[in-house]
Amino acid sequence: MTSRHIAVDLGASSGRVALGTLENGKLHVEVLHRFPNGGVPVRGGLYWDILGLWREVLHGLKLAARQGDIASVGVNSWAVDYGLIDPQGHLMGQVHHYRSPRLNGVMERVRAQLSGERIYDATGIQFLPFNTLYQLAAEVPGELARAQTMLMVPDLLHFWLCGQAVTERTNASSTQFLDPQTGEWATELLDALDLPGRVLPHIVEPGTVLGELSTDVAQETGLQGLQVIAPATHDTASAVAAVPARGEGWAYVSSGTWSLVGIEAPQPVITPRTLAENLTNEAGLDGTTRLLKNVMGLWIIQQCNEGWGLDYGDLYARAAGEAGGTLIDPDDARFSPPGADMPGRIQAFCRETGQTPPQTPAELTRCVLDSLALKTAQILDVLAEVSRQPITTVHVVGGGSQIGLLNQLIADASGKTVIAGPVEATLMGNLLVQARAGGHLPGDDLRGVVRASVELLTFKPGGADLSVLRQHFQSLTRTHNEAEV
Ligand code: LFR
Asked: Disulfide: which of 65, 229, 237, 350 matches 170 by Cβ 3.0-4.6 Å?
């Protein structure tokens, strides 16, 4: 049995349209179209070029049409951002970027109105200043009153593809106003903030057939008779669905612009301890919970490299030759905004914490990678503790899984075996959920298909003794963790 599906994966720094062919229990992924993405600054605001992204998607679909006979298409993207739709079905205004300065101070204001405990008890979601809850609170008065519906970015693209305006569950959970116990919107949080819960669409599960490709899109792209199927539309949820793990005792790192460090739990874990650690309980595939923590990730290096313009392979090879040992807390709020002064921000952090600042691109990169590895190890310990499950293996998936140095550092810092790959976990998770929904994947073993389809690399701990560095890191981050929740 052969089936073919198209996955659209929109990431914060790049997007792609890929064709997946499922044949004899193996999935072959071919990226047909790759395009850059990023925030567009305008007069102090920061936005996504959503129409530009849509044009790239249409272009990718045209390329796919040349391949003939495709069963379905589905879109995933980063989380939390949305568009507002007016009663005529038109997009209102722009789609704001989650790093927009419009959010400065908003989370603090909302938390002064509703207590942190109340928000966390109702949602189990990590406090991040850009959660949709704070974005809605930052809307210009009147905008929400005019809106008929709020659609998350992948939902918006599905709406444009087939006319169905619904929200898919995994991404809905990133808003911080979905109740993981009832599975419904936690509208009482919006009511308490005077925000209109009526704009929230009906929630559907990953794997829901949304409809047929609209006639206008079919005409524009040359694709005929395709179903639009919602995958796990949050990119991290699709990536976790494709983690090639088996059995128990494993964690994952979805490594890219962000580093999402977590485990898959059978149900949400919402306790004073998970609140204190600021862990998130995002919805996963098939009713699972993604108990994880956001770590700033490769964003810091990406922003540095905007100025350096270096080849990433060379940069990481040079970083591997550095002694390392200078550390930052990658989750310090100063590293979140975009900007060419990222090396300066790293150096300032080092100076403030009594360390000699790294100077060269290789030294700066090594400093970030060491810090990311130590942060990952720290979170893995917390996850094992709160879930009462030992973790022995860490699956690193996504673009960052190609950085051998980082994989080895995570193994050394955590004392756990790291298994790296697949690079295209998000695309694979997206494609496999579509294939299953369309009845093309007998059985439920998505992860088995991934294991059969890709080569994985193993990194054993023991390269270096990092106990002193771990202690140093612990003392650097303690202050920050306390400030976070
Ligand atoms: C990763 C990701 C994270 C989310 C962040 C912002 O691409 O989706 O899971 O917290 O982007 O949306």
From this structure: 237
Please tell me if the CB atom of residue 98 comes closer than 6 angstroms to any atom of ligand 1. yes
pLDDT of residue 1: 81
Mean pLDDT estimate for the chain: 96
The model's pTM: 0.97
- Cα 181 to Cα 88: distance, rounded to the nearest angstrom: 34
**Residue nearest atom 12 of ligand 1, based on CA coordinates:** 79
255, containing H or E segment: strand 250-255
> What string of H, E and C letters represents the secondary structure of 78-118?
CCCCEEEECCCCCEECCEECCCCHHHCCHHHHHHHHCCHHH
The Cα 322–Cα 129 span in angstroms is: 34
Residues 6+ apart with CB under 8 A from 225: 212, 213
Spatial contact of 397 and 239, defined as CB atoms under 8 Å apart: yes
> Rounded distance, CA 208 to CA 369, Å?
39
Amino acid at 464: A
Measured CA angle at 29 (ends 455, 70), to 5 deg: 150
Rounded to the nearest angstrom, the distance between the alpha carbon of 258 and the centre of ligand 1 is 6
Active site residue: 81, 155, 235, 370, which one?
Answer: 235
**17 by DSSP, 3-state: which?**
strand
User: Average pLDDT for residues 423-452, to the nearest whole number?
Assistant: 96
- 356 CA → ligand 1 middle, Å: 32
- How confident is residue 267, by pLDDT bands cut at 50, 70 and 90? very high
The closest of 223, 101, 81, 203 to 153, measured between CA atoms, is: 81
Angle among Cα 97, 98, 101 to the nearest 5 degrees reads 85
> What are the pLDDT digits (tens) for 62-99?
999 999 899 999 999 999 999 999 999 999 999 999 99
What gap in Å lies between CA 260 and CA 291, rounded to an integer?
Answer: 10
Q: What ipTM describes this predicted complex?
A: 0.99
Q: How far apart are CA 186 and CA 179, in angstroms?
A: 5
Counting residues of the chain whose pLDDT is more than 90, the rounded percentage is 94
